[in-house]
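Hey, I'm writing a tutorial for new members on how sequence and structure tokens pair up, and I'd like a real worked example in the thread rather than a made-up one. If someone can provide the structure for the chain below, I'll link this post from the tutorial.
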Amino acid sequence: MDNPLSTIAHKLRTPLTVITSTVNNLLDGTFGSLNADQKKWLKKLEGHASHLEQLLNQILDFMREDPAKANRVLDRMGEAQTSTPATFGPTEDSTPTHPGSMTAGRSPLVLVVDDEDDIRDVVKEGLTMKGFRVLSASNGEEGLRLALTEKPDVILMDVLLGAENGIDVERKIKNQLSSFVPVILMTGQDDLREKITGGNSEPDELLAKPFQMEELFSRVRSMTRLKKMMDEIERTRQKSHNPKARENS
């Protein structure tokens, strides 16, 4: 059974991630230019979101002192659970994609796997604005299928995917793909962050929720550079074992 406190952290940090990332996208001009008043109020919202994150962390630290409270709070959160707000517009990128996008001179292809519609949407909007092509999946099975068929350049994978575990999905992808694809695991759970960085899993990057969009962009850019370098090493290795390839190079 999951640690109740860690589950609470995930439930609280998920909506905070949507708020923070959406504000980042708006300030970055993803949805068009803003006037001075709009920027002023978004900056205020950004500051309040940062303050809310600090308060959330303080509350979680307080609850660690009495684990029984975490169970009671989790029960209350379950009772107060409301339906997920409706989303507007398509959540998946319908643009046809092709394997080996970077070697073909195309913009890098990023696969986003998260069971929260709003997080997939806000991350997709931000990455698309930065010139990336984006595919998204709402569960591990769909993420695995898209990873194997589309061969993305980078995968952003949430650790908690409903009843599925993103760490297990990551391992399946790594085991079944013949080429290297970097995986960035996203999590809002403190204990999972400790386990992941403690050696029980080997993600290429770890991104803690809530995150700033610039931090996400930086990690994705870094992983695309790593992907490009690893692909070049593999091409060089193949040439060294293929006399005809060496003659034609």
